[in-house]
C-alpha cells in the first residue's frame, strides 16, 4: 500500500509501541493511588509530562493531557471563555478550522455567544486586514489553526497573536497539523493555549494535550481531581507515555520537511505535466511540506479515489461525507472555490514512510487511468 493520507493519521512508530506495551501490561495501576504500583504509575506520568514539556518548550505544569485535539480545542475555547470578564464575550474562529471545531463555533452561537469567523483570501491564507478589524475590545478569545489539514496553508500565528494581545484578547492555536511537521516551541510562540494530538506524529490515537500558559485561568470542562483539577478522569497512561515517546523521536523536523517538500513538488509537477487539467490549491503560499491539495479538471473525486484505491494508493477527498452525500469542503468554500470544482478535491498527504519510488509509481500509473476520463468529460461538455 502507498499511504498518502498522513494528515488524517500516521502509523504509530515501533518505538512508540515498544514504550507503551510495558505500561499496558505492567504499569496499569491508577496514578492517583497511594500504594507502590500507583506511585510507580504516577512517576511514569510525570516523566512523560517532563518529556512533553522539554520537547515542546513549555513548563511541565503547562501540559494538560486530554483525549486528543478535539477535546483540547473544546477545553481551550469553553474554558478560557468561561474565565473571561463579562465585557469580553465574543469568540473569533478561523473560517477554515477543523470541521469538529467549527461545530463548536456553531454550538456556542446557538447558545447565544457572539461568534465571528475570520475569513481567508482566495489563496487560502488568512485575511489579516479583516482579522484586524474583527479583533475588538469585546473579544475574549481568538481560536486559529496553525496549519490547515486540507490545504496545508500556514496561518500567521505571530501576527494574530500581536493583534489579539493588543486588543486584550487571548489566542488559542490548534497546532494539530503543525507539531511534528515544523519546528515548534510554546515559549515564544505567541499563543496562550495550544492543542495537539499524538496520532498526527506517529503516536497513539485518543491522546493529546492542551498547553496552557502558566497561571492563565481556564474553567475545567471535565470535572475531577486529575491534571490539577483541570481535566478529570483517570489518566490514559499508556497513551500519554506513547505521546511522549513520539515527541521524543521527532528530533529536528526540518530535514524531513525539506525531503517531503521535494517529493511533494515532484508529485505536483509530474501530475501537472502529464495532466495539464490538474489544478493545485495553495501552491504559491507557505504551506506544510507534505500536503498537496488538487483537482483533476472537474473529475469526480469518487472516481479518482476509486482509481487510486485500485492502484493501492490511500489518499483522501477534501469533502466531508454528510448523511451519505458528498458535501464540498468548507475550506474550499471559504476560499471562494466554485462548488463544482470543490467536489473534485483530492488530498495527498506525504509523511515519513513516503519514498521517491512510491511517488514515481503513482506518477507512472495514475495519469494513464485518468486521461481518458478527462477527455470523456471534455467531449461530454456541450
Ligand atoms: N484539528 C485539526 C487541524 C485536525 O487535523 C484534527 C484531526 N484531523 C483535529 C483537530 C482533531 O484531532 P483528534 O483526532 O485528536 O481529536
Order of helices and strands: EHHEHEHEHEHEEEHHEEHEEEEHHEH
In percent, how helical is the residue content? Answer: 40-55%
C-alpha Rg, in Å?
22 Å
Sheet bearing the most strands, described? 7 strands, mixed
CATH superfamily of the largest domain: Type I PLP-dependent aspartate aminotransferase-like (Major domain)
Shape from CA axes? globular
Q: Averaged pLDDT, please?
A: 96
CATH topology of the largest domain: Aspartate Aminotransferase, domain 2
> What portion of the residues fall into strands of 2 or more residues?
15-25%
Question: N- to C-terminal separation?
Answer: 39 Å
CATH class placement of the largest domain: Alpha Beta
Key attributes of the depicted protein:
binds 4'-deoxy-4'-aminopyridoxal-5'-phosphate, about 375 residues, alpha/beta, Aspartate Aminotransferase, domain 2, 7-stranded mixed sheet, Aspartate Aminotransferase, domain 1, globular, 2 domains
Describe the structure.
- With 382 residues, the chain is of the alpha/beta class.
- The chain folds into two domains: 2-7 and 253-380, Alpha-Beta Complex (Aspartate Aminotransferase, domain 1); 14-250, Aspartate Aminotransferase, domain 2 (3-Layer(aba) Sandwich), CATH 3.40.640.
- The protein has twelve helices and 15 strands.
- Helix 6 (157-166) links the parallel strand 5 and strand 6 (170-174).
- The longest helix has 25 residues, at 356-380.
- It is globular, with a radius of gyration of 22 Å.
Amino acid at each position: 500500500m502507498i499511504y498518502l493520507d498522513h494528515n488524517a493519521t500516521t502509523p504509530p512508530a515501533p518505538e512508540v509501541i515498544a514504550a507503551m506495551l510495558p505500561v499496558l501490561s505492567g504499569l496499569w495501576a491508577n496514578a492517583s493511588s497511594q500504594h507502590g504500583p500507583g506511585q510507580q504509575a504516577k512517576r511514569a506520568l510525570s516523566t512523560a509530562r517532563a518529556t512533553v514539556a522539554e520537547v515542546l518548550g513549555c513548563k511541565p505544569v503547562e501540559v494538560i493531557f486530554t483525549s486528543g485535539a478535539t477535546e483540547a480545542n473544546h477545553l481551550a475555547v469553553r474554558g478560557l471563555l468561561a474565565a473571561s470578564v463579562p465585557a469580553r464575550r465574543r469568540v473569533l474562529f478561523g473560517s477554515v478550522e477543523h470541521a469538529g471545531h467549527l461545530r463548536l463555533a456553531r454550538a456556542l452561537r446557538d447558545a447565544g455567544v457572539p461568534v465571528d469567523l475570520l475569513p481567508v483570501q482566495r489563496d487560502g491564507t488568512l485575511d489579516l486586514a479583516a482579522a484586524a478589524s474583527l479583533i475588538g475590545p469585546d473579544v475574549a478569545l481568538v481560536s486559529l489553526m496553525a496549519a490547515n489539514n486540507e490545504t496545508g496553508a500556514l496561518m500567521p500565528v505571530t501576527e494574530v497573536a500581536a493583534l489579539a494581545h493588543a486588543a486584550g484578547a487571548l489566542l488559542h492555536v490548534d497546532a494539530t497539523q503543525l507539531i511534528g511537521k515544523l519546528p515548534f516551541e510554546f515559549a515564544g510562540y505567541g499563543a496562550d493555549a495550544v492543542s495537539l494530538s499524538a496520532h498526527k506524529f506517529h503516536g497513539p490515537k485518543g491522546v493529546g494535550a492542551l498547553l496552557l500558559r502558566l497561571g492563565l485561568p481556564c474553567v475545567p470542562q471535565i470535572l475531577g481531581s486529575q491534571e490539577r483539577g483541570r481535566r478529570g478522569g483517570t489518566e490514559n497512561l499508556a497513551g500519554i507515555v506513547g505521546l511522549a515517546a513520539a515527541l521524543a523521536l521527532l528530533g529536528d523536523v526540518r530535514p524531513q520537511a525539506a525531503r517531503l517538500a521535494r517529493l511533494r513538488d515532484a508529485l505536483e509537477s509530474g501530475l501537472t505535466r502529464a495532466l495539464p487539467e490538474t489544478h493545485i490549491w495553495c501552491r504559491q503560499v507557505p504551506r506544510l511540506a507534505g500536503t498537496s491539495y488538487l483537482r483533476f479538471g472537474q473529475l469526480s473525486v469518487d472516481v479518482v479515489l476509486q482509481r487510486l484505491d485500485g492502484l493501492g494508493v490511500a489518499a483522501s477527498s477534501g469533502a466531508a461525507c454528510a448523511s451519505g452525500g458528498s458535501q464540498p469542503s468548507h475550506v474550499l468554500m471559504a476560499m471562494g472555490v466554485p462548488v463544482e470544482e470543490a467536489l473534485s478535491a483530492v488530498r495527498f498527504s506525504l509523511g515519513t514512510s513516503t519514498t521517491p519510488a512510491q511517488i514515481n509509481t503513482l506518477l507512472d500509473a495514475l495519469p494513464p487511468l485518468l486521461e481518458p476520463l478527462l477527455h470523456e468529460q471534455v467531449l461530454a461538455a456541450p
